Amino acid sequence: MGHDAQETDAAAAVDFKEVQSTTQFKELRKRHRSFVFPMSIAFLLWYFAYVLLADYAVGFMSTKVWGNINIGLILGLLQFVSTFAITGWYVSYSNRKLDPIASEIRHEIEGHEFDKHGNPVGGTAK
Amino acid sequence: MTLMVPAVNVTDLKDTTLLNMGIFAVFVAITMVIVIRASRNNKTAADYYAAGRSFTGPQNGTAIAGDYLSAASFLGITGAIAINGYDGFMYSIGFLVAWLVALLLVAELLRNTGKFTMADVLSFRLKQRPVRIAAAISTLAVCFFYLLAQMAGAGSLISLLLGISDWGGQALVIVVVGALMIMYVLIGGMKGTTWVQIIKAMLLIAGAAVMTFWVLAIYGFNLSDLLGGAVETSGNPNMLNPGLQYGKTETSKLDFMSLGLALVLGTAALPHVLMRFYTVPTAKEARKSVVWSIWLIGIFYLFTLVLGYGAAALVGADTIKAAPGGVNSAAPLLAFHLGGPLLLGFISAVAFATILAVVAGLTITAAASFAHDIYASVIAKGKADADTEVKVARRTVVVIGLLAIAGGIFANGQNVAFLVALAFAVAASANLPTILYSLFWRRFTTQGALWSMYGGLSAAIILIVLSPVVSGSKTSMIPGANFAIFPLSNPGIVSIPLAFFLGWLGTVLDKRKEDPTKQAEMEVRSLTGVGAEKATNH
């Protein structure tokens, strides 16, 4: 972390390039990205579709469905629903698929620190 | 549906001034005691900036909600819906959906990589000095815009409550609010301000819940009838349809797109929100805090929908516009209409507290950024000890406090939600591309970061200066002049893509390559949390 790290860093002597090239880490990165990237694209598309409809399809959005409640309001409220749903989905995905691998890798790396050799493995820090 | 409550008489409000001030004084007294108690063991820089990383996810999530549900959300959105109907609802949706960007792409990775400020992450694997300076400058710029909005909200609220419409009187009260805020931050540091945020967030959400329930009860818990009431009072059936504010011309439609873009991409780049991810011990707690805040913020925005249309139906757009404080007075007027002086006093005290707490959060972010990124890393070249750094941060708090007071005195009358949207546009342009590139793009280089940050920041600010917000129309900040050559009032649609493009261009044209070992370290740390947790548990 450079010059301003005042606290001793448990991971300062780790060869991060080596960790980065392990299959375990690659799997973690793949699982993370294969969830967050498509999901981000999906919710952004859905959001911008909504904004475009509100902007250029006023007639459609103003169609009354039930009493004074129109399609625009329903789609707006559905944005809330989808936000809550994606939040819940992500949390359960992280708990099941990401956290176990991440903490495994973390324990392995931090285990190195207590190695009898005590030598910097790759000399990558600073 | 007849009205069961007498119409609001704005002149009655003055009689309740003492009561309002009393409720506000009680809040200040209680929170001040908490701040002093919380600050007893503020010793290290981690204590001062990051509250010793001692907050739990739910606590921190409530505090994030407190930071986010600023006067803009409460006063601004309610007012925007009350006057512009459906187009005001857009703010709620954009402000909420934006949290998914923070949750999925930024929060945990950032928590794992940095220590105190956004610049820690951005400069992690790039050249320290130039990137830190750029990140600190953009942090200060975003905080300044955000502060302007909050202080404008304070001005509106005060003019309504005290019936003060003269410049000197409002200025005096803004000075008092500013002075209180400086005290909170100086005494309490991050821990103190976080506790103030938590209390304030709970009061704000509770107050909004009571009002929402009340409004719905008046309409027999029938949302359709409430909407009908809003249409009836306003005499405009388009209240419920999109386009009332932004649908007039092709330019205004484009402006709406620009606003939508800035709202959804701004949150994950707001320095004072990012800094909150550091007050929790682990990335998992950071995730929990974001989840909490998404729920709290989402529910609150559902309330504002009811409150906005409720104000339109029960108070009426004409009364709101005519009241001192204008658009921003919709929520307090609705409170007065529903619960009389007592509810008005409570709601106003909460709104005041909101402004106070958000301003405190912004100030501490700006101060941390200056002390940690510019002073400690650049001026003192990393040789400053933590005590000096905190000392510099405290002095910065005073300077920023004075600037905020001055800015607040001048930025009166604009819709607060609109002003905050400008801060979002600046944040999304200056910070978001670099945050995302440095977290996810291996090749990203220092030159790319600098081009993107300076390019995005200056594009956003120049376009705002050249927009109708600043000059050329009756509602501009400088109504007399006209140099508004940029037609949109929100610069996002131009400046955000430009900043992403510049980040890419600067990188591919950069002959220097960044150190791949630092890239590896950042990627491993960001995904696994190696070092981040151990390093901070003393």
UniProtKB/TrEMBL annotation, chain A:
TM ranges: 35-53, 65-91
Pfam families recorded: DUF485
Matching PANTHER family: INTEGRAL MEMBRANE PROTEIN-RELATED, MEMBRANE PROTEIN
InterPro entries assigned to the protein according to its UniProt record, in alphabetical order: DUF485
Domain of life: Bacteria
Protein name: DUF485 domain-containing protein
Gene source species: Arthrobacter humicola
UniProt entry keywords in alphabetical sequence: Membrane, Transmembrane, Transmembrane helix
